[in-house]
Specification:
elongated, 2 domains, 9 strands, 55% helix
């Protein structure tokens, strides 16, 4: 995908070079070129149309000049929906990216990587020697700031404009609602691709100074990038804060239901039924411990129902696309199934705690129920981290569409 605006001089050199020198080096892949031109007045469109007459794998996609991100988003949609592309490569026409590096990105994909970044900031990578100190500092520390704020420490070049992305992951990103449609679009896509669990690889590239044309980088892109970085961080932080608050209300519900189950005698009744059945591998000997464990299980299930309702309508309410494709009832069932492990953990923890310490524990001269005290460390250190991972990756898949498993032909 090559975005263009007044790139006639560059595009007339780039297209033949790709067709005659670069693509023949790439085996087992059907390579296409998609030029997303923003109605260039310099004749870029006409130059591309000349090339289309020579090579059928070149495509022209016109649109309004609305920023670099808009051009790429337009191209991504076309590549995925019309060309059925297996992967897309973001690439500039201005020769700052070496076209001979393209086979290296494709080779990395063939090795099993989902997201391949042409990196200037790893060993072997390089930024233009012609850049002044001010621009070098902005580029390096801008990428470093993004790594720190977004916790993407394993990635060294956050703002690279030369990368390959498998469309099976790109389809899960909400491209139509990105924070920025300018230069900073790439930061959000990278962040969300990483959150999706894509296998990422950086390969070193030399980033050259432009040979012709005008830079797409605008003065306000720095502020735009800062907006994207801190908005993404705030979104994720707020999600965690909401999640913890919902967990707190769920804990109150859990204690109420747990104590009601035990104090009404329902838990001991069920414990007697369990103990009357011979389960050698359970070795049930302590009726009180079993009833406390059953009570904890009922409480945990009540908390799960409460948490699901709160999380669905509040914590993860921005998963608009998933809600369109996954009905409420289906998500509720998946939520309960995914939470079975946390119920089992709490039930066993309470059972084991009562078996080891008895019905009550003396704490600061006060006798407190073991079944309640044991839940605090169990929920904080085991249940909350486990549930947050499950909810993000399985139930709501934070802001993302379901994974598209259709096999493509390109």
């Amino acid at each position: 995908m090559i975005p263009t605006y007044n790139e006639k001089e560059n595009i007339e050199k780039m297209l033949p070079l790709l067709e005659n020198e670069v693509f023949p080096k790439i085996q087992n892949h059907n390579m296409h070129i998609l030029v997303a031109d923003d109605t260039s007045p310099d004749g870029t469109k006409e130059e591309v149309e000349k090339s289309i007459k020579k090579w059928s794998n070149i495509h022209l996609l016109e649109g309004k000049k609305e920023g670099l991100g808009s051009a790429y988003i337009r191209a991504m949609h076309y590549a995925m929906n019309t060309l059925n592309a297996e992967a897309v490569i973001e690439f500039d026409a201005d020769f700052q990216h070496d076209p001979h590096d393209i086979p290296r990105l494709v080779a990395a994909m063939d090795q099993g990587y989902d997201y391949v970044i042409g990196s200037r900031y790893i060993k072997g990578g390089q930024i233009p020697k012609e850049w002044g100190l001010n621009r070098k500092i902005k580029s390096f520390f801008g990428s470093l700031l993004a790594r720190i704020v977004l916790f993407t420490f394993s990635i060294h070049d956050m703002t690279s404009g030369f990368k390959l992305t498998k469309t099976s992951f790109l389809k899960q990103v909400d491209l139509d609602h990105l924070i920025s449609r300018n230069y900073a679009y790439k930061l959000q896509i990278l962040f969300e691709i990483v959150l999706l669990g894509a296998k990422v690889k950086e390969i070193p590239i030399i980033f050259y100074e432009r040979s012709a044309g005008k830079s797409k980088m605008e003065t306000n892109d720095i502020y735009d990038s800062l907006k994207v970085i801190f908005t993404l961080r705030l979104r994720e932080s707020m999600r965690i804060i909401k999640f913890l608050f919902v967990g707190g209300t769920g804990f109150v519900v859990q204690i109420i239901v747990q104590e009601s189950t035990i104090r009404t005698g329902l838990a001991i009744f069920l414990a007697m039924l369990v103990s009357s059945i011979h389960f050698p591998f359970l070795n049930v000997q302590n009726l009180g411990a079993v009833s406390n464990g059953i009570g904890a299980g009922f409480g945990a299930e009540a908390a799960i129902v409460s948490n699901f309702l709160f999380n669905n309508f509040w914590t993860f309410n921005d998963t608009r696309h998933l809600k369109q494709t996954s009905p409420f009832v289906i998500r509720a069932i998946k939520f309960n199934l995914a939470s079975l492990l946390s119920i089992a953990i709490q039930t066993f923890a309470v059972y084991l705690g009562v078996r080891l310490f008895g019905e009550n524990i003396s704490l600061f001269s006060h006798s407190l129920p073991t079944r309640i005290l044991i839940l605090f460390p169990t929920i904080i250190f085991l249940v909350i981290p486990l549930n947050y991972i499950i909810y993000n990756m399985l139930i709501w898949k934070t802001r993302y569409l379901k994974h598209d498993k259709k096999t493509s032909t390109h």
